[in-house]
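Good morning,

Attaching, inline, the backbone tokens for the sequence recovery test we're adding to the shared suite. The designed sequence is right after.
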């Protein structure tokens, strides 16, 4: 069952409106496109969505919220779970998850789908590249035949495959602006959490402008755990600021290691 609702999602107003509009299209799809016959002129209504943007910006939460609003279960799979080192298994896995989602009337959520939606390789030199092309071809077939809702999540795909562009609706999840950061801080500083009087969502929202909702959640948890470890009776503003700094410093270290590979 889905974990989250739209009440827990903080995104720019325009994106929220796009998400709610997508839900309405999905909700009335069977009536409009099957009973009223519009599938004859629009075989692929927007029941395939791609949430793209930086990690931690609410893509997974939004997928769960859509499932909750539509009162359907959500089936979650990642690209790492779908691909296989055995030849021919990847396409079979894609076909299987689409079949299972349609059978269970579930929202299918495919995370880390960058490789699946990018352009097919034209100069195939290795078995792994051929396998990726085969998976993309199978995905295209499944999207044509699928009678359900599939949501992809990608961080960055510079070159989408043209075959998917007219069949998938793209919704961008940006890093939160100051207004969104303020609201995310407010919601994560839950009433039961003892905080000092100087802890203010306004100040925290201004302090760091390059963090996502996941960073804010992790900072609150980190500051609270450290405070409890040292038997403090409340969380100070400085505790939260230091937690943010640790998260950002760890991110820099990870990037430097990746750059040396």
């Amino acid at each position: 069952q889905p974990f989250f609702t739209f009440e827990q999602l903080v995104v720019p107003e325009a994106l929220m409106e796009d998400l709610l509009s997508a839900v309405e299209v999905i909700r009335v799809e069977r009536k409009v496109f099957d009973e009223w016959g519009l599938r004859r002129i629009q075989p692929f209504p927007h029941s395939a969505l791609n949430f793209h943007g930086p990690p931690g910006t609410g893509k997974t939460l939004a997928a769960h919220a859509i499932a909750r609003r539509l009162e359907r279960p959500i089936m979650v799979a990642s690209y790492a779970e779908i691909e296989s080192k055995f030849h021919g298994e990847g396409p079979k896995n894609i076909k299987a998850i689409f079949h299972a989602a349609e059978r269970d009337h579930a929202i299918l959520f495919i995370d880390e789908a960058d490789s699946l939606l990018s352009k097919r390789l034209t100069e195939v030199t290795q078995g792994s590249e051929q396998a990726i092309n085969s998976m993309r071809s199978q995905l295209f077939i499944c999207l044509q035949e699928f009678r359900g809702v599939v949501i992809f999540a990608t961080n960055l795909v510079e070159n989408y495959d043209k075959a998917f562009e007219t069949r998938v609706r793209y919704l961008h999840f940006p890093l939160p602006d100051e207004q969104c950061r303020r609201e995310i801080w407010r919601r994560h500083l839950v009433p039961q959490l003892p905080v000092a009087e100087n802890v203010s969502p306004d100040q925290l929202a201004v302090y760091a402008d390059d963090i996502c909702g996941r960073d804010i959640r992790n900072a609150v948890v980190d500051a609270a755990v450290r405070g409890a470890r040292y038997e403090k009776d409340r969380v100070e503003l400085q505790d939260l600021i230091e937690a943010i700094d640790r998260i950002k410093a760890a991110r820099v270290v990870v990037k430097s290691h990746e750059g040396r590979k």
